[in-house]
Design a protein that fits this description.
Layout (H helix, E strand, L loop, with lengths): L13 H18 L11 H52 L22 H7 L5
Helix pairs in contact: 1-2
């Protein structure tokens, strides 16, 4: 078998990769002084493997926490959106003659005419 036809796959998944590191360390320790990896494998390899596993687990916990927080944020923002829309509508009723006054309430008020979807696509060179 030629060297060019052999592929040794290294796992991309962190847990699979760390399991491979663990198996290499185990075999290295079994071989003892006769291990061909004696110059390569030092105590720091096990320390790095353990730290990498710890960091991976912490990152996953933080990812779960971020997902929960984003879900809560999205729910609250959706509730607030209803309140803001209602406030806009009430204020538009009050300031029907001068809608720009909603700017005093923090709203961005645009009074330029908006292109219709058909006109906008035609202006962009798209077929109707």
């Amino acid at each position: 078998m030629s060297k060019g036809s052999v592929r040794v796959v290294l796992p991309v998944n962190t847990y699979a990769f760390l399991a491979l590191v663990q198996r290499i360390l185990k075999k290295h320790n079994e071989e003892g002084q006769d291990s061909p990896l004696a110059m390569l494998m030092k105590a720091s390899v096990e320390e790095k493997r353990a730290r990498c596993l710890e960091v991976q687990q912490r990152a996953e916990a933080l990812r779960r926490e971020v997902e929960q927080l984003m879900g809560e944020k999205n729910r609250l923002q959706k509730e607030l959106l209803g309140t803001v829309r209602s406030a806009r509508d009430i204020l538009l009723g009050i300031y029907a003659q001068s809608p720009k006054d909603l700017g005093e309430w923090g709203f961005e008020v645009n009074d330029t005419p908006q292109k219709s979807a058909k006109k906008a696509s035609a202006a962009a060179g798209e077929a109707p």
